[in-house]
Amino acid sequence: MSGEINIGLAQINVVVGAIEDNVDKVIAFARRAKDDHNCDLLVCAELVLTGYPPEDLLMRPGFNSKVEQELQRLCDTVTDIDLIVGYPLRTSKGYYNVGALIQAGKVVEVYNKIKLPNYSVFDEKRYFDAGEDACVFEYKDINFGLTVCEDIWHDGPVELAVEKGADVILNINGSPYHANKIPERRAVVCGKAKQVGAPVIYVNQVGGQDELVFDGASFACDANGEVVHQDPSFKESLGIVKVSSGASGISITGSQMVPQEERLASIYNALVLGVRDYVHKNGFSKVVIGLSGGIDSALTTTIAVDALGKENVDVIMMPFRYTSDISKEDAYLEAKALDIRYHVISIEPMYDAFVKALAPVFEGYKEDTTEENIQARCRGLTLMAFSNKTGAMVLTTGNKSEMSVGYATLYGDMVGGYNAIKDVPKILVYELSQYRNTVSPVIPERVITREPSAELRPDQIDSDSLPPYEILDPILEMYVEQDCPPADIVAHGFAAEQVEKVIRMVDRNEYKRRQAAPGVRITKRAFGRDRRYPITSGFKPSIK
What we know:
- It is built from 16 helices and 20 strands.
- The strands form 4 sheets. It has a 7-stranded mixed sheet with strand order 5-4-3-2-1-14-15, covered by helices on one side. Strands 6-7-8-9-12-13 form a 6-stranded mixed sheet, covered by helices on one side.
- The relative contact order is 0.09.
- It is of the alpha/beta class.
- The longest helix has 22 residues, at about 370-390.
C-alpha cells in the first residue's frame, strides 16, 4: 500500500486560561491548513486548549467543564480536517495531560503523557497522573505514535510506540526557551529519531507566559535524524510537512527551512516576545521606563520599543545632584534615536522634602545608604504616579547580577510590573546592547563603554560595592545556576574572600527577590519558578 498525508504544524500563541479564545485560534489554523494547503491533519501543541502551564487553574471548579465544553465545540466546528490537540483530561482513573486525535468531529484516540517533568520550571506531578501505554494509530496507511513533550527526552515512550508499530512519531510540546535550548532540543529529538529509526514531527507552543517564553521553532526530521523542515522561532506559523509511504518505506519532506538565529539574536528576540506578550496579555498597551543614561535602562528601553512600538513607550529621566551631565546627554540621545517621548522630572524637590520631614527622627545619625535609597524611592514613586495616571506599565531595569546580590532598592528601582532583563547577567547586557546596535545604532556607544554607576553619591561606581562583573558573573553562574559548592568555585581560581562575599550577598537578599517584579527567563535557572530558596534560613554554605 502507499499513502500520502499533508500535515500542518500549528505553532500557536495561546493565552493560559483563555480556553474559548484558544479554541478559536485552533479553528482558524485548521481553516488555513485545509483551505490554503489542503492538509489532512493539523497538529497542535501540548495543552493547546488551556495554554501551558495552566498551574493551579487545573484545580479550579469549572475549569475542566469549560475544557470539555470547548473541546466539544471544536469537534462540532472542525469536521473537514483531522486534528491532534492537547488538553487536560479527568477520568475515573486519574487526571492526565493528553494528546488526542479528533477525526471527523470525534475524539477517536487519546494518549496519556507518560513522562511528567518535575524539575526546573516544571511541576506536572502536582497536577497529573502518568500514563502507562503507547498510543499508535493508523492514519491513511501510515502508523503514527503520539507522544507529549517530555516523553521524547527519555527512554521508554517513543521506543514503546515504535515497538507497537509506529512509522512516524508525533511529539506535541510546551517546551520553554532558554539560551541554547533550540540546538539542545534539536540534538535530543534528532538523536531519538535516529535511535529508533522513525521520523519525528515536533510541534511547540510559541509566546510569552509570565516568566516563560516559548520559542516555537517546530520542526521535522527523518529517520536518519536529519532535519527536513524548520519553522521560525518566536512567532506564530503554520508549517506543512508531507509524509509518504511506498515501496521504499516512509519518507518525509517539509515546506520550509527557516535559518536558526545566532545566540545573541535568539536571546534578544526571546526578551522582546516576553515583554510584548506580558504587557498585552495582561491588558496593557503602553510602558514607562526610568531612563538613567546607564546601560541597563538603555537596553530595557530598546527592547520595549522593539516589542511594543515607539508610540507605546515613555521614558523619564529623573536627575539628582549626583547625576552626571554625561548621563543626561546619553539618555536624551537614546530617546531621540528611538523617537520616543522623553520627560525630565527632577527628584531634588521631593528628596529635600522627605529628608526635611525625616530630620527629627534622623537626628544623631550619620548619612548612609538610607539617603541613597530615598533617591531611588523618589524615582519609584515618580514612575508609579505616571503609571497610575496614564495606564502605562512600569518596566524595571535591574539585571540578574544586581538581583542576585541585592544591588537594588526595594520600593525604589525595583518598583514595576515587569522586568525585561531580570534574568540577564551584566556581561550579557553589554553583549546584547552591542548586538542590538548592529541592527540599528540606538544605544550611545558611551553608554556601553563607560564605567557603570548607580550615581547615588559623588563619584560612585558599581565596583565600589561589587567585584568586577568579569569576576562576579562567573561566580554567580556557578552558585545560582549550577548550585556549585563554594569550595568548587574557589577551585576554579576565584579568591575565597570574593566567593564568600558574593555568596553571603546572594543568600541574604532572597527577601528582596521574592518581592521583585517577574521577568523573562532566558537561562537554565532563573529566580522565581526555577530557584526556590527559603527567605528565612539558617544554612550557611562553607567555603572549605
